[in-house]
Amino acid sequence: MIGPRLLVVAVAAATILVPAFPAAGSERAATVDGFAAVAGDGLATTTGGAGGRVVTATTLDDLRTYAAAAEPLVVRVRGSIVVTPFGDMIKVGSDKTIVGAGPGAEIVGGGFYLNQQHNVIVRNLTIRDSYVPGDWDGKESTNDNDGIRIDTSHHIWIDHNRIERVGDGAIDTRKDCDFVTVSWNVIADTNKALGLGWTTNVITHVTAHHNWIRNTFQRNWSIDNAAAAHLYNNYLQDVGQYGTMSRNAAKVVVQNSYFDHVNDPLVAKDAASELVQNGNVFVGSSGRRDTAGAAFDPAAFYPYAMDPAGQVPAIVRAGAGPQPAAHRRPARVVTVALDGSGDYGSLMGALGAHPRVIVLKPGVYREVVRVWEDMAGVTLVGAGRSPSDVVITYDLPAGGEKFYGGTYGSAGSPTFTTLGDDVTVRNLTLANSYDESVTPSQALAVRTVGDRAIFDRTRFVADQDTYKADSPNRDRVSRTYLHDCYIEGDVDFIYGRGTAVFDGCEIFSSDRGTPANNGWTTAASTSDDNPYGFLFTHSRFTSDAAAGSVHLGRPWHPGGDVRAIAQVVIRDSWLGPQIADPPWTDMSGFPWQQARFFEYRNTGPGAAVSESRPQLDPADAANFTRERYLAGTDGWNPIG
């Protein structure tokens, strides 16, 4: 604990003479700094194995022996070392430096475990692929596959590593650890990034700087009961659930960091949580940016210099991870499989590799998928004989409470979201398996935000709000072409302000047991300056609900927006007996007659022509075709 030692904390960073591969132009890279350089618990600073023998590990047996040795050692890891049994943790003893000897140094299928140790440096390594296929949540009893796990240890420096696609946490700092610095690491393509705590004691002092955390979901960081957590110049990119969180009595300072498309970037969760933030940049990041309490002054503990926040992405991209960097060209086609026969075990991991095509082998993939903006142009293809052979599913309700407060909403609920442009999905099922009979709530299967999305022979399955055709903002139009697809739901299950063409699709209204009103198919909120909302053409509207109990739609005005004038055309389609008469209804005080609802040349027992069913004039029908809806200003034409 630092308390009585404040007279000796503001020490200069210590240069560690070990084999190192610093970032280009960065002398700081070979220098321990932050709390790992602060005196305490009998150590003046962190030196690792300096002064001990320098040894080289090329096999797993060598690495296990050297890492756990009683003597100080500098252990150079050369080449790729595969951990057996899969998911096992290599035990690391005190006074060790474990450093990668070149860009090919990596630990595959396992990680490092420091338990009641001190004075350890882990640098310049890749630690990857301990993910258990199918266990995206990391909840299976046999899966505690962290990249680096630290328990009750002090003076630890984790620097210039790449940790990706691990089974549980990338770096978990647990059980009263102290004097830890995490710097210049890449944490990527994994659900849980960086957790700290697992203790009721408020002891831990940690510094994290110049880390690149990307394509992750939670724990970015999650900081529980830390006496002082100083995070600066970190680059968080494409984070699905929450960014940095102060929990219980943690004291957290976040400075000059860059949050790029991070949901809830800064959260002070509990009444005693303290979080001070200054100088940070937020781009495309919505949700909470909390401040609470006074936390602490990092300069009272050690000297440090920060880069301008606006320069952080370029600096961190150039310098984080093992050095010299291995130049890996993205593969054009990769496979995902649950049985170990693919290149990746999760779709999240495959997307992070930025391929052009991802082929998913048959199976049920339980994970939340975000196709981020920098993943534009990717194609996902199910390798089964039918779309039901490959299922991507999760169960977050829009009205569900996040554990740190607030609800998931329509942005957090979808199992599958396209944020990048030009995303194509073929021959698979996208589902939200939330059971609305437990607590009624919207629960989205799919949300499209990026432009020019294509879904071909794809199934969308949920209950309320199955598919949201969205856009980045009301002034931008995003287009989606759905061909030979199946969309199932009950209430407003095709909705939003985007432009979407449903060509040769089946629209299935499931029976929710209310024969007087079994729901609405659409709830468009098209902007009044957009002539094209939803077009259904050559499609079939089917149901297992009672005859006359399903409405074609109602006009949605989000937040009472008077400029949201729904636009829906259903033409040349077959309508089943479930269609109500009248098929269009009012919503939230807005009459359906003010919307742009039209039918044209429909057939089937649910089709009719009457005053309550506006029809396109034959002369105008040529303006409401697939091509017109999708062309936009760039002439996009995905048809055929």
UniProtKB/TrEMBL annotation:
Pfam families: Pectate_lyase_4, Pectinesterase
Stretch forming the signal peptide: 1-25
Localization annotation: Secreted
Keywords: Aspartyl esterase, Carbohydrate metabolism, Hydrolase, Lyase, Polysaccharide degradation, Secreted, Signal
Residues covered by the Pectate lyase domain: 50-265
InterPro entries in the cross-refs: PbH1, Pec_lyase, Pectin_lyas_fold, Pectin_lyase_fold/virulence, Pectinesterase_cat
Family, as annotated: Belongs to the polysaccharide lyase 1 family. Belongs to the pectinesterase family.
Cross-referenced PANTHER family: ACYL-COA THIOESTER HYDROLASE YBHC-RELATED, PECTINESTERASE 53-RELATED
Entry protein name: Pectate lyase domain-containing protein
